[in-house]
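In response to reviewer comment 3 from the previous cycle, which asked for concrete evidence that the modeling workflow produces usable outputs, we include below a single protein chain processed end to end. The sequence was submitted unchanged, and the resulting structure tokens are shown without manual editing.
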Amino acid sequence: MGTACSSLVRARRSSRTATIGCWPTRTIQPSAVPSCLCNSHERRSSMKRAILFCLLVATSASAQVARVFLAGTGNDAGDCTNQATPCRSLQGAVDQCPVNGEIIILDNGGYGGATITKSLTVNASSGIVAFIALTITVSIASTDKVVLRGLSMNGVVFGYADGIAFNGGGTLVVENSVIAGFAHAGINQSAAGVGVLSSTDSNTNSNTVIESSRFEYNRTSGVGAEIGTAKVSIRNSVLVNNSTGVSALSVLQTQPVLIAVDTCTIAHNTRGTEAQASPGASAVIRLTNSTIYHNVDGMLINGPSAAIESYGNNRVTSNTNNSTFSGTVFPLQ
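The workflow returned the following structure tokens.
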């Protein structure tokens, strides 16, 4: 009987007729399949379709939640995952954004500062002025990554110390941004622990990557790395009219600082680049394919283990003082 029932189910799935395995000379039409089996099969099919629909809905909802929207006409109390009901402040969007999510800025406006403690991306597309007058504080774990893209930051109005204060481990990426007018630094990295290029036996990593950005009129430095191990990479950027364009400071042997500068313009600062290190500590700035000109001090070095080094392909001109590198590092390949 079991063989016959199994064959009946196969018969129902046939386009026209089927042969029952235990009765090879007899054929049945699909209409001959008992209705109980048909109903059972249809119920299973309906259930499968329902489960598939639920999975699709869940996947779609998850994809939507990964994005949070921000606009000048928004409301932090709304559902910021919906483009029609965006958040109003950067902090409100950060609070609603999930880990590894993206905050999309929809229009021109002022969005305030924020404290970021998880992996996420803030994205203002080309043509949108996302104005930030307060400090953005990034304090994340060693495995986290924060990307800030397309921001216009100016600290003149409220006089905050730093544009971006990076106080944790992990990786901070700043792209296509303008950071100006802050009382201390445009970007100040003071992350503790060991940087990503150092010993991996530390559970804290810190790394800052800056690309295609502009730093100007900051009272202490355009980009500063200090108070803890820090690895900073600056590429295709402009640092002008700051007290110091690029500053590296190390006070402990266990917390070296390294800043790599690639294809940047450093001009009209009081100090173009400055490396300071206490005895036994290490603060190094390395430059390639960059221009340092019209600064009061081109390269200012304080401390026996501080260094400002060249790859041999930089342009240095018209600085009032200190236009000599500490030395040349590995030649270009």
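Residues 32-65 form one domain. We consider this sufficient to address the reviewer's concern, and the full set will be provided in the supplementary archive.
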